[in-house]
Specification:
With 277 residues, this protein is of the alpha+beta class. It has twelve helices and nine strands. The two termini are 40 Å apart.
Length: 277
Amino acid sequence: MDRLSTLLSHFGVRASLFYNGTLCGMAAYDGQDLHGHVHLLRAGTLTLQGADRKPLLLTRPSLIFLPRPSRHQLIAQAPEGVQLLCASMRFEGGIDNPLAASLPDILVLALDALPQLADTLNWMFAEAQGAHCGRDAALDRLFELLVIQLLRHLLDQRQLHTGLMAGLADGRLARSLVQMHEAPERAWSIAELARESNMSRAAYAAYFRDVVGQTPADYLLSWRISLAQKRLGEGRPISVIATEVGYESPSALARAFRRKTGCSPRDWVKRRTGEMA
């Protein structure tokens, strides 16, 4: 059972390198853009100052992952500065898609606590130090691979305790979540989903809500509407989208869409187009 590939096929990650070198002083990010950040501290002592958070002093090589726009500062603590490799990143489908929304605002992990990522990190640092043609493009792709491997690490180590990622890390819930992801057009019942988890309907519904933070029906609605939003953003007709995400007609999708988002699909597309202009 692959818990991530279907999610990433719909809401894949895109990264763009913007800094490779020595930071002396401070770098500030206002959080007003539409992307998150990945910072790799390779060497040096750094203070991370996040919005509404106490300053965090990093004295070991570390990964700083901010999956959504977030105001923060990186402050070098010595005159010789710190060695950094930084990329902006975003998930397809926007910052409110199920995958991005399931992640914490910020994760800070020491690199030596991430053995599964060691080969990729070594490759990235070698690329960053070299002068090969295509270096920046290669680092963009390596940052994307790094994020996928980080998500795998979070699942394997069960480091998140609520939300979608916690559900996918849970042996009793993962299969039913994957089934919803892979077949959103199917008219799933609680009984069918509970059977996927080898649980009674009542026990499954209660446990799902405790772990994921939504009822199974609410999660399925959220998943369908997230898929609809992504496909509307791609310019696909609502008549086709409705069938693909489990609604018998465009009007049925529009009603569910309004119930979830507070606006019609047409108004949502207009608003999104205006925000991106």
